[in-house]
Design a protein that fits this description.
With 378 residues, this protein is of the alpha/beta class. The protein has 13 helices and 13 strands.
Length: 378
C-alpha cells in the first residue's frame, strides 16, 4: 500500500513569545491535527516547544515534528527545499512570507499582510528590503497564495496582479485559548481602557495617547479620569513613543505593563473598560476576538481586516483621528446600554471565526495542489 501524501509545513519564523503570526501557526497546526484526513504532515521549526500541543492532538499519529537548526533566515529556504526533497513531500506550505524561491513540489504560502508596502515606515528597513527583494519572486513561484482575510486577499491582488488566480481565502479563527474562560458582563466605573499589541508604529499608540489626552481634558462628570493600560511586546521604531508612554505613566494616565502570558492577558481583559485597537493596518486582528470572548467592548478601525473581523460588534473609528477615537471612548463610558449591546454582539460574532473552518479550507488547498501534481504526472 502506498504512503499517504505528505505536507511539509514551514514554521521557521515561529519563535517565542507567540504573538500574531507565530500564534496563528500554533492555532492552524492544532486545528489541522484535529482533522482526520488521508494526509501525513511534517512540521519544520527551530522551536518545537511552541508546538508541544501536538503530543495530545487527536491526529498526532500522522505528524512528524522536525527541529530546524538555528541559523540565518537566508539559509532557511535552502534547508526547506532539501528537506522537502528528502521527505518526498507532496506539498510545501510556507506559513508566512517570504516563501522559498525553489521547491521540488507544489508550493503554498500564507500571506498575513503587506504592511511593508502599505506602511513602509512601520517596518524595520532591513526586513522591508528583504521582503521587497524576495517576495515578488516567491509569490510567482507559489502555486497557491493563502490569505488570512478577504482584506488581505484584496491587498495582495492589488499589489501583485499575477497572484489573482491563485489566491485562496483561509480566514483565521477565534484564538482557542479563550474558550471556556469566565468573564463578567459589567466593569467598574474606574476600569481602565486596554491596549494590546507590540509597541510599534502600525499599532497607532500615538493617536491613542492623543485621544486619551483629549478625553481627560473634557469637563469632568464626577467619574475618575480615564486611564490606559498598555500590554505588549517591546516592538521597534518606537524611541519617541516609549518616551511619551513613560511621561504619561509618570502623570498617572498610563500603566505600561509589557508582555504578559495569556492568563495575565485574560485577567487584564476581564478587568478593563474597553479594548482600544484602532491600528493603522492589520492582516486579521486577534485582539478583537479575544476581547469579545472576554465580554469586553471593542473600539477598532473602520478599515480593512479590522472592519471585516469586528463587523457590527464594535465601535469603528478613523484610526488617524484622535478626536474620533476619544468620542468612541466617551460613548463607551457614558452611553447607557452601549457596552452591553457591544458585548452581546461580540458573543454572536465569535462563532463566525473558527479554526476548524480555517483547517478545512487549508486542507482543501492541499488536496487541490496534490490533484494538480497527480494530473501533471499522468
Amino acid at each position: 500500500m502506498s504512503l499517504r501524501p505528505l505536507v511539509l509545513l514551514d514554521a521557521s519564523a515561529a519563535r517565542p513569545p507567540c504573538t500574531g503570526v507565530a500564534w496563528s501557526m500554533v492555532e492552524l497546526v492544532g486545528a489541522l491535527a484535529s482533522e482526520e484526513r488521508d494526509l501525513r504532515f511534517a512540521l519544520a521549526t527551530p522551536h518545537p516547544e511552541i508546538f508541544a500541543g501536538l503530543d495530545t492532538a487527536p491526529g498526532r499519529a500522522q505528524w512528524e515534528l522536525i527541529a530546524l537548526p538555528p541559523g540565518r533566515l537566508a539559509a532557511v529556504g535552502w534547508r526547506l527545499e532539501n528537506l522537502a526533497r528528502r521527505l518526498g513531500a507532496g506539498v510545501l506550505h510556507a506559513l508566512t512570507i517570504p516563501p522559498p524561491l525553489r521547491s521540488p513540489c507544489p508550493l503554498a504560502v500564507t500571506v498575513h499582510d503587506l504592511a511593508y508596502r502599505s506602511l513602509p515606515g512601520s517596518v524595520p528597513a532591513a526586513r522591508r528590503l528583504w521582503y521587497a527583494a524576495t517576495l515578488p519572486a516567491g509569490l510567482r513561484r507559489a502555486d497557491a497564495v493563502l490569505v488570512n482575510s478577504a482584506a488581505t486577499g484584496r491587498e495582495v491582488a492589488a499589489a501583485f496582479p499575477f497572484t489573482a488566480g491563485k489566491i485562496l481565502p483561509t480566514p483565521f479563527g477565534t484564538p482557542a485559548w479563550t474558550a471556556g474562560r469566565e468573564a463578567p458582563r459589567t466593569r467598574p466605573a474606574d476600569a481602565p481602557f486596554l491596549f494590546v499589541g507590540a509597541l510599534e508604529p502600525r499599532k497607532n499608540l500615538d493617536n491613542i495617547l492623543s485621544a486619551l489626552a483629549l478625553l481627560r481634558a473634557r469637563p469632568g462628570s464626577g467619574a475618575p479620569p480615564p486611564r490606559l493600560r498598555v500590554i505588549g511586546a517591546p516592538g521597534w521604531r518606537n524611541r519617541a513613543l516609549l518616551a511619551r508612554l513613560r511621561r504619561e505613566a509618570a502623570a498617572g494616565a498610563v500603566e505600561l505593563v509589557g508582555y504578559r502570558d495569556r492568563d495575565s492577558l485574560w485577567a487584564a481583559m476581564v478587568s478593563a473598560r474597553a479594548l482600544l485597537f484602532p491600528s493603522l493596518h492589520e492582516g486579521f486582528g486577534f485582539p478583537i476576538l479575544e476581547a469579545m470572548a472576554a465580554h469586553l467592548p471593542v473600539i477598532t478601525s473602520d478599515r480593512g481586516a479590522m472592519r471585516e473581523v469586528a463587523g457590527d460588534a464594535a465601535l469603528l473609528v478613523d484610526p488617524e483621528s484622535p478626536r474620533g477615537i476619544a468620542d468612541a471612548m466617551h460613548r463607551i463610558s457614558s452611553e447607557h446600554g452601549l457596552a452591553d449591546r457591544l458585548v452581546r454582539a461580540g458573543e454572536a460574532r465569535i462563532p463566525v471565526w473558527t479554526w476548524r473552518s480555517t483547517a478545512e479550507r487549508t486542507l482543501a488547498a492541499y488536496l487541490r495542489l496534490l490533484d494538480v501534481r497527480t494530473d501533471g504526472a499522468n
